[in-house]
Design a protein that fits this description.
FDH_Electron_Transfer_Unit; metal-binding; alpha+beta
Length: 259
């Protein structure tokens, strides 16, 4: 059985140097989008950012869900959860429908607003590197060990050991262990995660399972309609929330490309 790979980010070790940000830009051939990386935002040209919260720094990137909602809602199979763990996408298949953007519980995928044939963009956890047995570019570049790459099971053990051995330093939780069914990006922190801009109200079950559970007791003749209604409910629920984000992301994307 293939062991899934993951990233463990330790907020207590992050110096806010931006080496992960720079390495991601270089590895993915992304253009410069900000004069100050701490003020940059996720966009079609920026797959990871470093954010400052008081005395600590954290990273934001695709969380690579164990059972990703973006994959389940994509009507053309452009999004794919790989055996190794990264969630990747095929730009040639992408219709630009943005269902993945509306469905993502972590609000990650970004849209190429300024392209004639736009697609969605996001971190793919350096999938080609990972396939070849290499670390992600961000983990390789991190000078403090704040970003680690390895087998998910092993990183969970490391995270638990750090939290248990130093309870006065760490908030007693591994973010991504259970959120929305778990993620392949795990985070440990000295402060509660909502203070770092992470959603703390996510269910433990993977979001695609809610539809499956609801349909278990529905006769097959109406199952198709049930899937459609469930999908429409979820997408409608997220529509208003993402509208403001899309507007802001469009502004950041366009202004970044002009630099």
């Amino acid at each position: 059985m293939i062991k899934q790979k993951a990233i463990l980010f330790d907020v207590t070790l992050c110096a806010g140097c931006g080496e992960c940000y720079n390495a991601c830009k270089e590895a993915n051939h992304l253009p410069e989008t900000s004069d100050d990386f701490l003020k940059d935002h996720l966009s079609a040209n920026t797959y990871t950012v470093v954010e400052e919260y008081g005395d600590v720094y954290t990273r934001k990137m695709c969380m690579h869900c164990v059972d990703p909602t973006c994959v389940s809602v994509c009507p053309v199979g452009a999004m794919e959860k790989t055996e190794l763990g990264p969630v990747i996408y095929d730009g040639d298949k992408c219709l630009g429908c943005r269902y993945c953007m509306q469905a993502c519980p972590h609000h990650i995928p970004r849209y190429e607003w300024n392209k004639v044939n736009p697609t969605v963009k996001k971190c793919i956890m350096c999938y080609e590197r990972v396939k070849n047995g290499q670390q992600t570019a961000c983990a390789e570049a991190c000078p403090t060990g704040a970003t680690l790459f390895g087998d998910r099971d092993e990183l969970i053990k490391i995270a638990k050991e750090r939290i248990e051995s130093d309870p006065d330093t760490y908030y007693q939780k591994i973010y991504g262990l259970e959120e929305a069914g778990g993620t392949n990006v795990l985070i440990i922190s000295p402060v509660p995660f909502d203070q770092l801009g992470f959603a703390e109200n996510l269910p433990k079950d993977a979001l695609p399972t809610y539809t499956a559970k609801a349909l278990e007791k529905i006769p097959g003749v109406v199952a198709g309609g049930g899937v459609f209604l469930a999908a429409m409910y979820w997408l409608t629920k997220r529509k208003n929330q993402i509208a403001a984000e899309e507007k802001q992301n469009k502004i950041h994307s366009i202004s970044g490309d002009e630099k």
